[in-house]
Amino acid sequence: MNNKILIVSANYYTEISRNLELGAINTLKENGCEYKVINAPGCFEIPYLIKKNIDSFNGFISLGCIIKGDTYHFEVIANETSRKIMDLSVDFNIPIGFGILTCYDLEQAKIRCDINQKNKGREAALACIQLLK
């Protein structure tokens, strides 16, 4: 498979992002995909970086973590980020693996990024690869 995939990873929660990236990178390597990783300051900035690079890659993987706090901010960031990523995928007819965790606490996020458990970075990479076939 000769696909160039851009991983856009929000590094707000560094430990979580690193594990998601590791899951995605290992999966891309296993499937012979060429990749590059760039970081966003937070999940809300991921769609901008995908759009900025839309013509340079065959597919994208969005990675990050949004943890619920005491305000409505969690819903705004989670909903608007996922909506815009879906818009980009459909409008530009390009696969975008969605590996952004939306969790109620850090423990949930740790489970979902664990390389030996439910690594959502791996799942997002597999989704992108399957759509490219």
Account of the protein in words:
The protein has helices spanning 14-30, 46-52, 73-92, 106-113, 120-132; strands at 4-10, 34-40, 59-67, 96-103. By secondary structure, it is an alpha/beta fold. Strands 2-1-3-4 form a four-stranded parallel sheet, with helices on both faces. Strand 3, helix 3 (73-92) and strand 4 (96-103) form a beta-alpha-beta unit. Helix 1 packs parallel to helix 5 (120-132) and helix 2 packs parallel to helix 3. The longest helix has 20 residues, at 73-92. It starts with a strand and ends with a helix. The mean pLDDT is 96.
Q: What are the segments in which pLDDT stays under 50 over at least 5 consecutive residues?
A: none
Number of helices: 5
> Which structural class best describes the helix and strand composition?
alpha/beta
The main sheet orders its strands as 2-1-3-4
The radius of gyration is 14 Å
Summarize the structure.
The chain is an alpha/beta fold and 133 residues long. Helices cover 49% and strands 23% of the residues.
